[in-house]
Amino acid sequence: MNTSILSKNIQDFITLNSSESITKLALQKNPFPEVEWILILNQIEAKAKAKDKLPTWFSTQNIIYPSKISVEQTSSEKTAAYKASLIDGKSLIDLTGGFGVDDYYFAKKFKSVTHCEINEELSTIVKHNFQQLQIENCTFYAGDSAAALNDADQKWDWIYIDPSRRNDAKGKVFMLKDCLPNVPQSLDLYFEKTDAILIKTAPLLDISAGLSELKFVKNIHIIALENEVKELLFEIHKNFVGDITLKTANILKDKTETFEFALDGETQFLSYQLPQKYLYEPNSAIMKSGGFDEVSSFFKINKLHKHSHLYTSEDLIDFPGRSFEIEKTISYNKNEMKTVLLNQQANVTTRNFPETVENIRKKWKIKNGGNKYCFFTTDKNDNKIVLICRKIN
């Protein structure tokens, strides 16, 4: 860790230029010849990445950033805070500590947190940053996390793991066994040290594939931020037997949309109906969950078609996703399209439809944007239709 970048003049320069173009700055002469220019530029670029994602770090003085890739790969503060709200206890060990964002929030919930990081320089950086952030209940272990577990003569209330894909696993189907650490292979070791494990994975992991590799899964959490799925969490409790609960959360600026259901529970699916007065599109976390019949059952709303994953009702409900009032329903044919949508401006979405948004726009010369929302989809009678809507929320 190069502490020379902590000099007040350099820190002021980094802050002053955190919104400037790195490409332009790189062409300038280094005003601090005693420090490599590339180091200063890296700090500016990483800090810029942290502005929206890590506002606490961005606004705290004398923070040292690792590479911008480490900042890009770390949890955002919003998802880290949500994760920390799911579990509690006295002690937690993070086997893949990284830049420490998750541990910052875990430290607010647990009496003690152990941050393990195989990259010694990154471990040192996080230790320094936690001093600036006034986190005093975290200890740091620089080295292999398996060694940290074996060396410690203690048990923890929770083990947290965020395994990373091995470079040689590119192109393969994403499996936990292709990650470091290899969680499925190490579960027995982990359960010697804890009774509860929280595993974070990338959103592209297939949930059923994750379940096939793990045991004792109690809850699966799907976390989205502003309607983009960011991570999956597998919550494992030693010797747990029972129904697995799937919990979704879509974190928005002013609220968090949540929905949950038992993975293998009985569902009283409502029915398929032609479009009624209102249309509902589930948020991305629910879409990832696959709980489409459960949505219909819980909210008592009808599906348009088995594969459309759009819902409709006569009365407006509070729904975890986007809600629309249907102003007009037309058949997808040349005459209707020419009359209603040719050369118009609209937001176009397809669900269970044979053409792409790009092709539809090109074919019917539909400009993007405006207040009109058009859903190209299939109804319960397998007819191709277009729902012309006004967005409610």
Automatic annotation (TrEMBL):
Single GO biological process annotation from the record: methylation
Residue ranges annotated for the PG-1098 ferredoxin-like domain, each copy included: 278-320
InterPro entries: PG_1098_Fer, SAM-dependent_MTases_sf, Thump-like
SUPFAM superfamilies in alphabetical order: S-adenosyl-L-methionine-dependent methyltransferases (SSF53335)
Domain THUMP-like, residue spans: 321-391
Keywords: Methyltransferase, Transferase
Superkingdom: Bacteria
Gene3D superfamilies linked to this entry: Methyltransferase PG1098, N-terminal domain, Vaccinia Virus protein VP39
GO molecular function, one term: methyltransferase activity
Keyword Transferase found: yes
Keyword Transferase in record: yes
Protein name: SAM-dependent methyltransferase
Organism classification: Bacteria, Pseudomonadati, Bacteroidota, Flavobacteriia, Flavobacteriales
